[in-house]
Each structure stands twice: as C-alpha cells, then as structure tokens.
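Sequence in, structure out. First:
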Amino acid sequence: MKASVLITTYNQEAVIGQAVESVLAQATAFDYEIVIAEDCSTDRTRSVVCEYRDRHPDRIRLLLRERNLGLVANFPRAFLDCRGQYVACLDGDDYWTSPHKLQRQVDFLDAHPDYSICFHNALMVWEDGSQGPTVHSPPGRRPTYYLSELLRHAFIATASVAMVRNHLVREFPSWYETLAVPDWPFFVLHAMHGKIGYLDEDWSVYRQHPAGMYCRLAGEKRMEQNIGIVRTFRDVLNPEWRPLLNEVVHGRCLSLALYYREQGNRARAREFARMSIREARKGLLGSWRLQAKVFAYMRVPALHRLLSRRRAALHAASPVTSVHPPDAASGSFRC
C-alpha cells in the first residue's frame, strides 16, 4: 500500500467527522488506508468513527482502545500499526483543505529518496475568535531543512501537516512517552534518517481551542516544557550533538528569563538567568562573556529582542549548505 493516513482522536465528536471527510476527499492515483486510533472517548467520538468505518470498510481501519492511553502513548502505538510506504498524520480536531495534499506529498517523497519528511504550512484558526487566522510556516520558507535546525526549533507546526517515510522508526525509544508532546520528538526521530522537505502550501487547518494541547498551556509553561524536551534530546542523542543542544538550552533559558523580567517576576527571571549561565558554561565560550551578556540582556531586554530579530533575518537568508549537518549518520541516539 502506498500511504496510510493516521488519525488520532479523543473526545472530538463535534469535529472528527470533518477530519475524516477531508481525508476521504483526497484525489490520488494510488490506494491508501485511513487508520483511526480512538482513545476510549467518553463522548460519541467512537460511535462517529464506527459509522464512518461501516460506510467505508475497505478504506477505514479502526484501532479502538480499551482504556484511555493519552496522546503520547496512543500515537506511537497507532503509527507502528500503519502499513503504507508513507504515513500522513492528522489530529482529530484538524482537517485538510486540499484534495491534492496526499498526492503531492507522495510525489515529493517518491522523487526524493534521501528525504524522510515532507511538510507544509498550517493555517492556525482560533475557535473562540480571539485572534484572526495565522499561517504557520518555517523560518525562511526554504525547500530543505535538516536535523540540526529541527533540534533548535520545532518549526513543523503540527503532525497534521507532515508525511513521513514509513519503517524508518520500527520502535519508539523508552524516553519518547516520557515527554509531554509527541510531535517534535517524532519528527526528530525521522529527521535522523534523511532531509526534511518543505512545500509552501496551506493545506491544513490547525484548530486552536481551550481543550487543545497548544492552548491549554500558558506561554511560559510551553517554553519550560520545550526546555525539558531539548534536555532529553541532549541526554539521548549522540555526544556530537551536545554542543548545539547546550547552546539551545542556554538560549531558551535566557529567553524565559527575559520573559519573566518583562512580566515583573524577578525571582523567576533570576532563576532562569542563572540557569542560562550554568548551561552555557558547558559550551566553549568563556563564562565571563556569558555572564556579561546575560547581565546586559536582563538590564536592557530590548537589546536581546533586537539582536534576536537580526540573527533570525540572517539565518533565513543564509544558503542551505550553511546549515547542513556534518554527518548525516550522526543523528542516532545512544539508548
């Protein structure tokens, strides 16, 4: 089978139908299956997906959990049950907007065997109307990205925009289910095996609502959560990635310190400023320079914002070769 579409869902009776319909609407020159992993919902979600299965028994396959596993456990188990050469993911509260999405992503991966992931933009829509729709796209909108960049920043908006080459990850490491969110580490595991291809198209709606994982956490909590994820990467990836990940943790701790500084929470600001210095001392820069930098940024937060914008602009304009990892095989992990 050419492709599997994996839908994970829990308590989404009002929206799961739109997700499934957007997959059934795909126009492809190949056969594909729809695998729906229903995580023991307490509403009518299970009844809805069973009705779809009954109407499309040759297309839809259900994985009905006997107890609630939670997303970080339900997702990897369901992924390993997918039979297609490629797997496209879709969260049960999102939906696709183009009937050509699957075909275009399959065509890309067929034509680029050295790529392990293909993704596109997401249109973020706030269900409560608190914000207008926003397109989530990667920095620079370049056709190719690499593991080194993905370790720095989770630039793939959501699993609902991605297709991966199947059977590169035949089992998930023990640390995977200890993390709070599955998407970023899922992409890292696949980026260890190839390049990341980007299609500059808006083919998926990424709902933002109070029950969603993205909206449940305040900004600072998401930042702290991401620091924990990067520290896990540092612990489990090969040592050659450690200098880069030390730098990433240092930068994220400093950003959080500045955030708390601007919020007037000086105790938390000092805590993360000290943490950023401790993390940076693990790298190659002299500690006195780092302490001076942190002190300057804490005194004048606008300086950090200005320099960050300048670095981001330079990074987006840099040639692709400047961010290619030195060794494509260096993505393996130690556990």
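Second:
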Amino acid sequence: MPAYSFTLPTAGGQDFVSDEHLPLIVYFYPKDNTPGCTTEGHDFNARLAQFEALGYTVAGISRDSVKSHQNFCAKQGFQFELLSDKDETVCKLFDVIKLKKLYGKESLGIERSTFVLDKNGEIAHEWRKVKVAGHAQEVLDTLSQ
C-alpha cells in the first residue's frame, strides 16, 4: 500500500479511494465558499480536461462537511471531487495543518498546499504555502514537461 493512501467521503457521499485514482493531484484548501478557495477551485476546474488528458485525477480536500461540499460544488459547477476530511486524518498525513494568524488571532488551519501522487501513490511534486493566482497553471506546466 502506498504511503499516501487514503479514503475520504466525496460531496456525492461515496468513498474516494486514492489508490483507485492514481496518478492524482490533490489540493488542500482552507474553507468552502471563501474567495481564494473559490478562485482556486475554478482555476483547477478550467484546466481539468488538460489534467485528465495527461492521465491525472484532480481532487480538493478541506475540513468542511460533505453537505458543505455538495453546496459548494453545486453553486460553483466543479467537475472534480471535493473530499471531506472533518477529522483531519489526511490533512495530518500530508502535514498541512499549521498554526495560522489572522487579525492577531492564532488558530490551527489548513495551509493551502498541492501534492501530485504518482502511479505508485508516492509524492512526485509538492507545493506548500500556495498563492492562488497562477497556481493551477503552474501545476499543469510542471506536469506537461
């Protein structure tokens, strides 16, 4: 079993088993229906056919509930899976839960990050502390080389 193997519920309520979707682009984002996360989702969605043509599956992960993901997907029209990691199991596996500061308050939250898992389920590429602008294109450019 690959080191980065996981199973999480999708917005549709089915189990998403990572090993069945390799190679896989998985991006972690802080929260549904927020400006940066919405933009990032649209950027990946706009390039989805290109990622799929290269053989990759795309999935987004946050701590939001399945119901929240259902609403977010329906509202935004995303054509890829959003996965619910309410207990942070997969977030911890990828070490994306970090201490964040916002308006002087500290809290633990998801650090925007993207990982590409190869056909063996190992990390082939990773981006941490992601800035949304241009990121999905950067991932596509990297995988197109």
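Remark: The domain at 7-144 is CATH 3.40.30.10 (Glutaredoxin).
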